[in-house]
Write a structure and sequence with these properties.
CATH class of the largest domain: Mainly Beta
Low-confidence stretches: 5-12
Organism: Deinococcus aerius
CATH architecture of the largest domain: Clam
Protein name: Sigma E regulatory protein MucB/RseB
Mean pLDDT: 92
Order of helices and strands: HEEEHEEEEEEHEEEEEH
Helix content: 10-25%
CATH superfamily of the largest domain: Lipoprotein localisation LolA/LolB/LppX
Oligomer: single chain
Number of strands: 14
Keywords: Signal
Shape: elongated
Strand content: 35-45%
Number of domains: 2
């Protein structure tokens, strides 16, 4: 019986790895080829006045296949049509932590996404984008996802002593705005959080936590439960942006 159980577990693990490899190949393909047509995009988190709009392409999501495979269990969940094209459905479930869950629909002929869905940890819909109509042929694109700089994680932890990164998340980039605000982007391969150092506090809202440190404020913004966001910042006892060293870019004009 134990041997049968072990064999079943090994087969399941092998299937999950194969599914992750297949999805990773599709996401890499999407960096050079993309579908165009008519897309319906619905965003419920963060809330907005008009949650649904139309577009001619799927909204950009900075997928990082290697991190995704490390942090999510990927499982093939059958085939479904999207805009009349047969697609494979992949479910992405976080292995640890409380990050959002994702579903992606991959065109079986073109091997690129035709739809995606992001759900909160409680299962409620955060956003969904899906083609309603697809042009006869995909188009060539150039999507660049910069490599995560070596040493950035250590620098961020030095700049925010006491920071507890959410399970699976790593810093991927730093941005300095013209008003002096410092933004650090965190990713788990799919979901993105913003760690912000600012002179002013941020208004309370779902998906936002803040903490006063000295004369400044540290925010964390993203699709995690409020308690999880607060826990990340709970032990931050100082801020030292100079610890970011060469990772600090020149201030830009973004607001």
């Amino acid at each position: 019986m134990r041997r049968l159980l072990l064999a079943a577990l090994l087969l399941a693990g092998g299937a999950s790895a194969a599914d992750a490899d297949d999805l990773s190949a599709a996401l890499r393909q999407a960096r050079s080829v993309a579908a165009r047509g008519q897309v319906e995009v619905t965003v419920l988190f963060p809330p907005r006045g008009v949650p649904t709009r139309r577009a001619n392409a799927l909204p950009a999501v900075p997928f990082r296949p290697a991190l995704l495979a490390r942090n999510f269990t990927v499982s093939r969940a059958g085939t479904e049509p999207v805009a009349g094209r047969q697609s494979t459905r992949f479910e992405l479930t976080p292995k640890v932590g409380q990050a959002a869950r994702w579903t992606l629909w991959i065109d079986q002929a073109w091997n690129i996404p035709l739809a995606f869905e992001e759900r909160m940890p409680d299962g409620s819909l955060a956003r969904r984008a899906a083609f309603l109509k697809v042009n006869a042929q995909p188009t060539r694109v150039q999507v660049r996802v910069p490599a995560i700089p070596e040493g950035l994680r250590a620098a961020v932890l030095a700049a925010f002593p006491g920071l507890r990164l959410p399970p699976g998340f790593v810093p991927e980039g730093v941005r300095v705005r013209a008003n002096g605000r410092l933004d650090v982007s965190l990713t788990d391969g799919v979901n993105v959080l913003a760690l912000v150092l600012a002179a002013r506090d941020v208004a309370a809202a779902p998906g936002v936590a803040s903490r006063r440190v000295g004369g400044r404020f540290v925010w964390l913004v993203g699709n995690l439960p409020g308690a999880a966001l607060t826990q990340v910042l709970a032990n931050v006892r100082a801020v030292n942006p100079t610890a970011l060293g060469t990772f600090l870019p020149t201030a830009d004009s973004g607001r």
